[in-house]
Amino acid sequence: QVQLVESGGGLVQAGGSRRLSCAASGRTFESYDMGWFRQAPGKEREPVAIISSGVRRYPADSVKGRFTVSRDNAKNTVYLQMNSLKPEDTAVYYCAAGLGGGWSYWGQGTPVTVSS
User: Fold this and answer.
1) Is the pLDDT of residue 92 over 80?
2) Could you tell me which residues come within 8 angstroms of residue 4 by beta carbon, excluding any fewer than 6 positions away?
3) Which residues contact 65 (CB under 8 A, 6 or more apart)?
4) How many CB atoms lie within 10 A of CB 1?
5) What is the pLDDT of residues 46-69, one digit of tens each?
6) Would you say 67 and 86 are in contact if contact means Cβ atoms under 8 Å apart?
7) Which H or E element spans position 50?
């Protein structure tokens, strides 16, 4: 069982930066793939960044070059550094943990609002 708690969301001006954190419980954190997803109002949840066995992927083209996912296994934490934020990045951001391509555990989400 893995419990995930996101933090770091809030209001930020366009062009600014924000770092989200996701703290995980459990003794096998390092074995899980970790992902960041987001859901904007009226839209479906979409994958933003995934880190798996040290490999980083950014399924959302709109964040490439601006967002960076990282993890600290010693702290059981995964991060999402978001730079050059745009109003269209406004969403609730969720972290998730899974194995083999499936996402079994989800956090409660942290909202990010980017003002223009």
Assistant:
1) yes
2) 22, 23, 24, 25, 95, 96, 97, 105, 106, 107
3) none
4) 6
5) 999 999 988 999 999 999 999 999
6) no
7) strand 46-52
22: Cβ–Cβ under 8 A, 6 or more apart, which residues?
A: 4, 5, 6, 7, 34, 36, 77, 78, 79, 80, 95, 107
Of 19, 69, 9, 76, nearest to 39 by C-alpha is: 9
Yes or no: say if 68 and 78 are a contact pair by the CB < 8 Å rule.
no
- Distance between CA atoms of 39 and 11, rounded to whole angstroms? 16
Report the distance separating Cα 17 and Cα 82, nearest Å: 5
Report how far residue 2's alpha carbon sits from residue 102's, in angstroms, rounded to the nearest whole number.
Answer: 14
Read off the pLDDT band of 90 (50, 70, 90).
Answer: very high
